[in-house]
Write a structure and sequence with these properties.
Layout: E1 2-4, E2 7-9, H1 24-34, E3 36-38, H2 67-77, E4 80-86, E5 89-94, H3 98-106, H4 111-116, H5 122-131, E6 137-138, H6 139-145, H7 156-165, E7 169-178, E8 184-194, H8 195-199, H9 201-204, H10 212-226, H11 232-239
Antiparallel strand pairs: 1-2, 3-5, 4-5, 6-8, 7-8
Helix pairs in contact: 1-2, 3-10, 10-11
């Protein structure tokens, strides 16, 4: 994605390109095949939803053809993780590969242990404590319940991004706010859940026998096998 004259211009495929992914189902299948996929273009050629979808499909009035809308569908299905997973930028990770990402990002720590060892902030703990009581929660309600906002804690968005990167929380779906007339309005709001709620505690932690370096190497080797044109350093930078 580039900005030209103040407008976002996608760097995807032409409408008639036979390689173009056309539906959310096709995208889900592709994510399960490659394991990891950022939403927008990055330094690894072809390693994004943007580059394999229609250049004219984004933010259209046809949600069934719009990759931006597909992320809502895929997140709600609960079979693929979606959130800020690549350098605080959005993307997808398949269920198969999520435990390896957890092993890489957590270094064997569940959240409570991380907090007890002084490696997590009190702001992060407040968010986790709220989500432990709910199966899922819209971000605007979570912000209030965890004590952020006017007169409260600062840095909500940054703390949420960090918890997603560390694989402790993930997006479970989206919804739109409603006005007093019960009419939907505005951009979709993400609903968040603990990753263990989405995929199961034992499954998320099933690769904890790997240390951080071993898990990272396994992930990088896999991505190289799917995107062989990329250098190891490029991939490491993308998944850090």
């Amino acid at each position: 994605m580039v900005t030209i004259d103040g407008k976002w211009v996608m760097e995807g495929l032409a409408d008639d390109d036979p390689k173009r992914i056309k539906t959310s189902g096709e995208l889900s299948g592709y994510i399960n095949k490659v394991g990891f996929l950022p939403l927008f273009k990055n330094s690894v050629q072809g390693f994004s939803v943007e580059e394999i979808t229609g250049i004219n499909s984004w933010w259209s009035d046809k949600p069934e053809e719009d990759p931006w809308a597909w992320r809502e569908v895929i997140a709600a299905e609960g079979r693929i993780a979606y959130g800020k997973l690549f350098g605080n930028r959005a993307g997808f990770v398949s269920r198969e590969w999520y435990p390896y990402l957890a092993a890489f990002r957590r270094d064997g720590y569940d959240f409570d242990s991380r907090y007890e060892d002084g490696l997590a902030s009190y702001r992060a703990k407040r968010i986790m404590e709220v989500l432990e009581l709910r199966d899922e929660m819209p971000s605007n309600e979570l912000k209030t319940a965890a004590g952020f906002g006017k007169g409260g804690e600062k840095g909500f968005e940054g703390t949420m991004a960090l918890l997603q990167m560390q694989t402790y929380i993930t997006v479970k779906g989206f919804h739109r706010k409603r006005n007093k007339k019960n009419e939907e309005y505005g951009w979709p709001v993400a609903n968040y859940t603990l990753s263990e709620n989405l995929f199961g505690r034992d499954y998320v932690r099933s690769a904890y026998d790997l240390n951080t370096l071993q898990a990272k190497d396994k992930i990088v080797d896999w991505i190289i096998s799917k995107f062989s044109m990329a250098s190891r350093s490029e991939i490491e930078k993308t998944i850090k």
